[in-house]
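Newbie here. two chains, one complex. Structure please?
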Amino acid sequence: MTISAKIEAIQNLHATHNIISTLEQSKASIEQLVDEMPDALFIFDVHGRIYRANLEGCRLLKVDSEHYFGLTVEQIFSNDSAQILFNKIQLVSQNPKSFERPHEFELEVQTAEGKNFPYHWALRPLVPDKYEKISLFVLYGRNLSEIRSFERELSQIYSSIPIGILAVGPGGLVEAHYSRYCEYLLQHERFSGLNNGFANLDINQILFEPSHATMRPSEREGSRLLVKALGGSEYWFESIRTQLPQLLVRKTISGDLWLRVDYFPVVSDGIVQKVLLIIENRSDLVRERQERSVWIKRNESAVRRILEIQNSEAHGLQGLCLDIESLVRALDQAWEKSDFPAFQSGIEGLRSASEAAGFLTIKEMADIFAVRLSGEVGRDHFRNRNEVMREYAELRTECLELVRVFHSLNVPGSSAQDFHPRLDPAIYKDITQALDQNIELLRDKGPESVLYNLIHLRKHVHRVNYMRLSRLENFLQDLVKAKAAQERKLVKIHFHWDNVLIAPEYARSLRDALCFLLERSIAQGIEAPIKRRRMGKPESGHIHIEAHADEHSVLFRLSDDGRGLSAGKIRDLMKAKAHAGSPHVDELDDQQVLNLVFASNTLLHGKSAHRHAIVEFIGLRRFFEQSGASDIGLFSQLGQGTRLEFRLNFEADG
Amino acid sequence: MRCVIDSSARNLDSVSQEAAHNLQRLVRFASLERMKTVAQREDIEDEDQTFLPDRLQVYAHWMAFILLAGDGGKIMFKAHFTSTDIQSLVARALRKDIDRVNRQLISDFMREYCNLTAGVIKARLLDVGVHTGLSIPIVTRGFDEIWRVDRELSTELFSYASWKLKWPSGSVVCTMGTRADAWPSAAHIKDLNDHSGQESDLEFL
């Protein structure tokens, strides 16, 4: 070998040494990664003899690193767990696919203190089958303690939320993991507290069947569709989703339990694998809705009943109400004795009495009831007491409520009697005093002297039929209460009309006008309490009615502290409805626009007046026109309130 | 000394068998003497170690090894150790605090030990006319020994031996594998003590 060849060989050798050193270092780094990885690693033979363990593995073996030789892997397990491990080893060694896919399982390890920790293990052969002489196994272990702890915390949270969550898997069976609140909501004493609880039970059994009695047929069918949807396409599930029962009610010891159920499919490859059910307790909400509905209905009924009584043209309403009361008593007796003819006769009596009184609601109910009770079919209905009882209870309630309202409106001094002529004691005193004076004058000074007094007396006599406005107060108070309740507002009304009298011919129309104005004020003027609070106003709205009388007229002034009228909007309305046949609308100031609201058609449009109203106050305007009201003034400031003034003029007394 | 000859080597003639036997003696002798040298202690002893060549066996967490090859033959020498055993040895040899002997120092110590041992073997083989070369020494995990089963047992090496070097605070397991049928002159190695004391310097520092 030449010298240059030797030099080259030495250089090659040197380079080879370098690269081997580099590989050695790389290998050492990789080995270190394996040593220090957080999971435990063991390599052992079929007898469990350990050939390699990383740091975490040594920790489990309770030995220092590098001192695992001579130990067996079973030392980290209890006897039972070690037996399980060896069974797994047998399984893996006999399964040629084990190298491709590790065999995974959970086994607890035992610490030196005797504590057990859950570990997840993956077991596979060390090398593929072609290395037949190397029969070793690799076991990777991950400590699940922290995960289990997290799961427990999560489970506690999951159990604490007041919502029932459960999943329904194939066959309609409830899956093992569900929120514990389900057991409270579904109140299944048979299953609660058992080891498995609702797990693997039929969803129909625990959720739908207890509500079958109150479910509609379509809902019952829907409940069956839920189970059919499992394993079907997600599109089909979406198509039947709306048919699934969403509100279920079940009877419990403490009352009805309303459950809202939402369904969420868990889809994989377009197939519904399971359905997640979210169940909420809606009992309070439903009860509140029912109560509010009853409350609104009651208030609406109260207003309707008041109007029916007030609109009744019948004479002797008092007597008719007494008749209705006695008929109800007779019906009650007939019902108790199951006396069909007497019951039928009582219903007929109610029809007649309500028709005579003009109580349309009772009459309509009695008509329908009478038809149901007619003939042999009616007798059969009567025998089916449950069905008839419900209908009769509604009619009976309506009768008694209406009579009660009538009596409450007709207590002495109430407004219902204000339309009947009654001599005012003050006027009576005035008249008798005037008569006494004139008698004296006739005796002392002759006929000429009593002329003036007779004129004065005539005025008193003329006012015999007049009524005090204060007699309307109870009625208007009731109306305000009912309307305010209906609108869910707080309203107080104040009257300022002491001793003011009004001619009887104006009484009914004035009352109707006031009713209309009060209802408008409450519905559209006074703001809701929360809004008033935000605006810095007191929660309760205030309506003031004033009346000031002089010799020939009474000036009325109604005001509220509501939201007021927008002159701008009224101006726009005027333009839109072509009232700006007055082309000067834009030139009018706000007050002039407000003044035009109650202006007569004639005033607005001259003789070509079959035009639309400016605003929907037709009835009120008719009242103003028919009663010859004058000095009509509408004043409003946006956000502050509205004031309406008008004057009713009476004929000159002489 | 325990000598294991693989079944495939049974056809060796008596000269080759003698050569193989001498090589095992030589390597064992060199390993002991060099360990005494590098560790600077005389209380190191060797003892027999059971060796089953056709069975998986991992002796320790770490393994240092070196290869001598030449003229158609080869010897693989391996020293299996744990860090703690060598750590105390190095600390004493270098008069260092044991905590300051890190893994790198331990690896370098064992590489140098392999070098020195192989140097003795090489010199004694040269005495009987066998020219060999040395690989660089490598330190790796003892677990790598399992790959030996498929590689070394196949055809290349068929004479194995293992022994243990012991001192009061630790031990090292040494193994060797050789193919000595190419070196019949190794049968002439007689007195192993002639060259003791050569190359005694600890050079890895």
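Moderator note: The longest helix of chain B spans residues 14-39. Chain B has one domain: 4-9+16-184. Thread marked as resolved.
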